[in-house]
Amino acid sequence: SCTDVLCCMIFLLCIVGYIVLGLVAWVHGDPRRAAYPTDSQGHFCGQKGTPNENKTILFYFNLLRCTSPSVLLNLQCPTTQICVSKCPEKFLTYVEMQLLYTKDKSHWEDYRQFCKTTAKPVKSLTQLLLDDDCPTAIFPSKPFLQRCFPDFSTKNGTLTIGSKMVFQDGNGGTRSVIELRDAANGINKLLDAKSLGLKVFEDYATTWYWILIGLTIAMVLSWIFLILLRFIAGCLFWVFMIGVIGIIGYGIWHCYQQYTNLQAHPSSVLTIYDIGIQTNISMYFELQQTWFTFMIILCIIEVIVILMLIFLRNRIRVAIILLKEGSKAIGYVPSTLVYPALTFILLSICICYWVVTAVFLATSGVPVYKVIAPEGHCIHENQTCDPEIFNTTEIAKACPGALCNFAFYGGKSLYHQYIPTFHVYNLFVFLWLINFVVALGQCALAGAFATYYWAMKKPDDIPRYPLFTAFGRAIRYHTGSLAFGSLIIALIQMFKIVLEYLDHRLKRTQNTLSKFLQCCLRCCFWCLENAIKFLNRNAYIMIAIYGRNFCRSAKDAFNLLMRNVLKVAVTDEVTYFVLFLGKILVAGSIGVLAFLFFTQRLPVIAQGPASLNYYWVPLLTVILGSYLIAHGFFSVYAMCVETIFICFCEDLERNDGSTEKPYFITPNLHGILIKKQLVPQKQKE
């Protein structure tokens, strides 16, 4: 019968609310606001179907004003901004343009593309400043992040722009290149993060094809390992070990080579504290300290792996035997090898929906305009204004030179007031759904493998399509129980995120005691999350076997584990360690190939992309993706072994091996497990 019906109803209501939230965010949001730069009137630059379709670059009338402190306070440069099709290529002031206009009117045509559409070439400088129709001067620039920035160059070790060190600002004053650089840096502080994001996006756009190839190879390699585990589990384990030790050894050797090569560069002796926090992450790889740290970490990992091999060698033999039995189960239920693909699809849908909803929520609202005073001496600064009537208001009279510029997207409606709450709801339901998908997979696999175990004559007594039957049974009867278990994990993860958020917001005000308490809380929540995940996994196995509710199943699983404490040491720790080595081997092998390929060190097979900003972007993506793919496939084996062992413990408690109550486990595995004392002495008697 159906279990935990109340939790099932709450879960379904949350999903319905999540869908409604996505639809409302879809109506109010506009992702273009995050993709295109916006001028002072709130219009997008480069948006198709608008007058700015061919004007993809944002131009600042007076970049020198961007040194104002209001840049960081209001996240806006206090100067007029318009969309242009190209950046200026030469020095020219408005007054100089007027003098040239009397001789050749083409100079105005070149200058007017950096002015508003209402601008005229015959205004006085005073009237120009009052109307703010044109910049008082333009200088050589180039597009960067869809914005016009000064085209700096170095001549004989001196910073110049257009071969000049000083230039006219159009207001009768002379400015230096250093001032212009400081103004550009004022904007760069706001755009550095976006610059990193765009470079990463460019690298993904260049290498997505090769990334997919690498992930496909990882999938094929994982499948091959799973098939070989059925026939040569013992031999394959030593392949895992030699491969992992060899990959880590290669990493140590490469780090040592980089460390010795950098000794010839004087700048490499700098430390991370010397260069500070940099958005250009490649700078860290030019330091000896970075490679030395990597080398030490890899050496420690290598020693730990070797020591675990030495001290766990006997239990590893038992784990290999369990893996062989698991291989038989998977051989009789081969559809379980395909199930990770379904889990991946469901997780991808959840992640995509969460990201899209978050983007639409973040871009919901209407343009909001704020008063910006270029000189920073206006009592009305940062107040909301209307650009259509701003010049006729008292603010324009009280603050000469003040501007009514676009600031951000927002609103005062009930929906806009609760957008932060909607973000929290979006995150929480996302965590709940992710954990539910994982729980559904674990319960379905446990049901399929339990069907295999409790078949007396294998494979004759195994019903057809055991995985699909178990999946349908979990959806139909136990959605509430799975939602209950995943809700607990989601709440713990939500508390961890809130804790990290508070730590980030209060970092500057923390003392030593508060930092210590934060570390203790992180550690406690980490332990709690892993303990609950372990208990939930075994509870899902009991649900798949008996069909009881979550609390009863969790209680039964806990009591069963307490009666078989050594199970944790063998089936969980040791078996997972063996499978973990397989995951590391898959991810490490693909990672080494990807490193050689993306760094142009493997030209024999194929020529890698040469125009990457950061080669580590596709490299880390391939390594992480390969590990997740391997984890998905090897988790089938982990769930198989754990289900078989739980069933084995139940089998020993329910049966005695007699003709009336025979054991369902194979005699070979039964003898080995009893010999290795994996059950209490009382049960053996």
Notes on the structure:
The protein has 22 helices and 12 strands. With 685 residues, it is mostly helical. It has a domain of 138 residues. It is elongated and about 115 Å long. The relative contact order is 0.11.
Distance between the termini: 37 Å
- How do the strands line up in the largest sheet? 1-2
If helices are DSSP runs of H or I spanning 4 or more residues, what is the number of helices? 22
Main β sheet profile:
2 strands, antiparallel
What portion of residues is helical? 55-70%
Structural class: mainly alpha
What integer value in Å does the Rg equal? 33 Å
Q: What sort of overall outline do the alpha carbons produce when their principal axes are compared?
A: elongated
* Unreliable spans: 69-75, 272-281, 677-685
**What is the number of strand segments?**
12
Strand-residue proportion: 5-15%
How confident is the prediction overall: mean pLDDT?
78
Key structural traits:
685 residues; mainly alpha; two-stranded antiparallel ribbon; 12 strands; elongated; transmembrane; transport; Choline_transptr-like; Choline transporter-like protein; antiporter activity
Q: What's this model, at a glance?
A:
This protein is mainly alpha-helical.
Helices and strands, with pairings:
Elements lengths: L4 H24 L3 H4 L21 E4 L9 H5 L6 E4 L7 E2 H8 L4 H7 L12 H7 L5 E2 L2 E4 L2 E4 L1 E4 L2 E4 L4 E3 L5 E3 H85 L10 H4 L12 H24 L1 H20 L6 H24 L3 E7 L21 H5 L4 E8 L3 H4 L1 H35 L12 H12 L1 H27 L6 H35 L3 H14 L2 H33 L17 H39 L12 H9 L5 H4 L1
Antiparallel strand pairs: 1-2, 3-4, 5-6, 7-8, 9-10, 11-12
Helix pairs in contact: 1-11, 1-14, 1-16, 4-5, 7-9, 7-10, 7-19, 7-20, 10-19, 10-20, 11-14, 11-20, 14-15, 14-16, 14-17, 14-20, 16-17, 17-18, 17-20, 19-20
